[in-house]
Amino acid sequence: MPALGLGVFQSPPEQTAAAVEEALRVGYRHVDTAAVYGNEKEVGEGIRRSGVPREEIFVETKVWPSDFGYDETLHAFEKSARKLGVEQIDLLLLHQPAPHRFARTVDAYRALETLLADGMVRAVGVSNFTAAHLRRLGEETSVVPAVNQVELHPYFADRETQQADAELGIVTQAWSPIGGITFYPGWGEQRRNVMEDPALVALAREVGRSPAQVMLRWHLQQGRSAIPKSTDPGRIAENFDVFGFELDERQLALVDGLDTGRRTGPDPDRSSPSLNLDLPIPER
Q1: Taking a C-beta distance cutoff of 8 angstroms, is the pair 2, 28 a contact?
Q2: Is the pTM of this model over 0.85?
Q3: Element spanning 63, H or E
Q4: CA torsion 67→72→77→80, rounded to 10°?
Q5: Residue 266 burial (CB < 10 Å; 0-12/13-18/19+)?
Q6: How many Å apart are CA 54 and CA 36, to the nearest integer?
Q7: Over its length of 284 residues, how does the chain's per-residue pLDDT go in tens digits?
Q8: What is the C-alpha separation between 189 and 138, in angstroms, rounded?
Q9: CA–CA separation, 221 vs 176, rounded Å?
Q10: Which residues belong to the active site?
């Protein structure tokens, strides 16, 4: 899996195909989407329009809790694969732990294990799982998740989950990797824009890069995957241009020191109407 990918959360379907096509033109070879984003079809369209061979592109998507359950999740794979226009999905994740009905989550993960054994997916994983959720899952399943995609940026480093992932050999993948989460009703009021943090702005000036590039470099150097979202061609290119410099130990520590311990997105242990875990996923 390429460590850096294009995220398409909140990307309007009418803009998604062009964003994916542009990202692949720039050099990205990893695209992350989800059934609940409503743009899997457009991700597939962008991949086809790019002309980049399918085998060179790592496609990642996620199953929403309304499709949890063994048979339901097998069908969710079929829906996503059909919309994406692919026969095999490179990485399939469970989107939320849904701890209040975790038995269905376990059944869904067992379906992922079947898809993996049958070669329909190349890897399986989870999203928004805490250390406690990972322990519960491990007690009832046999395949360790390849990836745990979680909110992670300089203002919320979630060190407990990172440590749990590391102990299990799970890759931590950061959503909102540059603190760019925009809108979750009822979550993250009084949020601050990490892009404007004075210490980070000064560090970016010091290394001759943008604050976004500094944050992405921070993720990559500490062994995480990151999936910054953008539909703007200039930002897409800027976010990919992070391989020509390195942060030293002092600079990495400076970014580490910005952690507030506060989420700006939903807490996976709390239910919220804004998440709408029962939202039905259309067939097409």
Answers
A1: yes
A2: yes
A3: strand 58-63
A4: -50
A5: buried
A6: 23
A7: 999 999 999 899 999 999 999 999 999 999 999 999 999 999 999 999 999 999 999 999 999 999 999 999 999 999 999 999 999 999 999 999 999 999 999 999 999 999 999 999 999 999 999 999 999 999 999 999 999 999 999 999 999 999 999 999 999 999 999 987 644 555 555 668 899 999 999 999 999 999 999 999 999 999 999 999 999 999 999 999 999 999 999 999 999 999 999 888 889 998 777 789 999 999 99
A8: 34
A9: 17
A10: 37
Token pair recorded at residue 172: 């931590």
Amino acid 238 reads E
Judge contact between 35 and 6, C-beta under 8 A. no
Q: What is the DSSP letter of 156?
A: B
Output the six-digit token pair for 77: 């794979």
Query: Under a CB-based contact definition with an 8 Å cutoff, are residues 38 and 13 in contact?
Result: yes
DSSP code string of 104-129: HHHHHHHHHHHHHHTTSEEEEEEES-
Using the 8-state DSSP alphabet, how is residue 43 labeled? H
DSSP, collapsed to helix, strand or coil, labels residue 135 as helix
Q: How many residues does the chain have?
A: 284
Rounded to a whole number, what is the largest CA-CA distance in the chain?
53
Contact 89, 121 (CB under 8 A): yes
Q: Position of tokens 């720039």?
A: 26
Matching residue, tokens 């976004």? 212
Q: 139: exposed, middle or buried (C-beta count within 10 Å: 0-12, 13-18, 19+)? A: exposed
